Model the fold of this input.
Amino acid sequence: MQYKASDFRTMARDVLKGKWTTAIVLTVLASVLGVATATLDVELKFESETGMVVNVLEQWSFTLLQPGRITTILAVLSVIWAIILLIIGGAMTLGYYQFHQNLARGEEAEVSTLFVHKDKLWHGFCINFWQLLYIFLWTICFIIPGIVAAYSYSMAHYIANDHPEMTARETIAASKEMMKGNRWRLFCLDISFIGWGILATLTLGIGSFAVVPYMETARAFFYQDMLGKDMRLEENILNENIYV
Done:
C-alpha cells in the first residue's frame, strides 16, 4: 500500500494528540536556536530601540553607552550568537528530527530530546555543511535542480539518527538513494500543508509553531514508510562516490 499525503497528515495528528504543547514548546526553543524553520517576523528597529535605551540610561546618569556603541555591541553579539548557532546547530537539528522520529515510532518524545545528540556537534555540523553545499551548487545551475537536490538529501538527518556509525557524506548519499523515485511524493506532502501555511501567516507567523511540528511529524512518517521499503539501506550507500 502506498500512503498518500492525507494519510501521513492523519498519522501525524494521531500521534500529536496529547503532545501538541510539548511539540510547540520544542519548536519555539528550536527556532530560537536556529534549528526549526518556524520564525516570527519581528523587525528590529535599532534606531528607535537605541533611543529608548539611551534615555533610560541617561535617567540613571549612565553615559558610557552611546547609540553608535549600542548598535556596535548588538552587531557583535549577533555575530557571536551566529557562531554559537553554527557550532551547535547540527547537533540540535539531529535532536529536532529525533523528536519527530520518536513520535512516529511511539517512543518517548520530550523537549529534552532536542539535546540528546549534544555530543555530536562535529557530526551534525558536517551533515548540515555538505547538505547545504550540495544544494547550493545545484542551485547555481538553476533553481529547479536546487529544489530537486534539497528533496534528494532531505532524509539525511533521519538516517544519521538511525545509523550513527555512518559518516556525514554517507548519510547524504543514503538519502539520495532512498529518495530516488520518491521526491515527488514528499513534495506533494509538503504542498498539502500550504493552506496551514497561509493560516500561519495570517497569525503573523505565530501559528507556524504549531504547523511546523505537524509537518515535521508527517515527514517522519514519510521516512518510516521509505525505510520500510528499503530494508537493505546499508548496501545502497554510495560511500565516497557521491555526485552532486
User: Anything to note?
Assistant: Residues 5-236 form one domain. The first helix runs from residue 5 to 16.
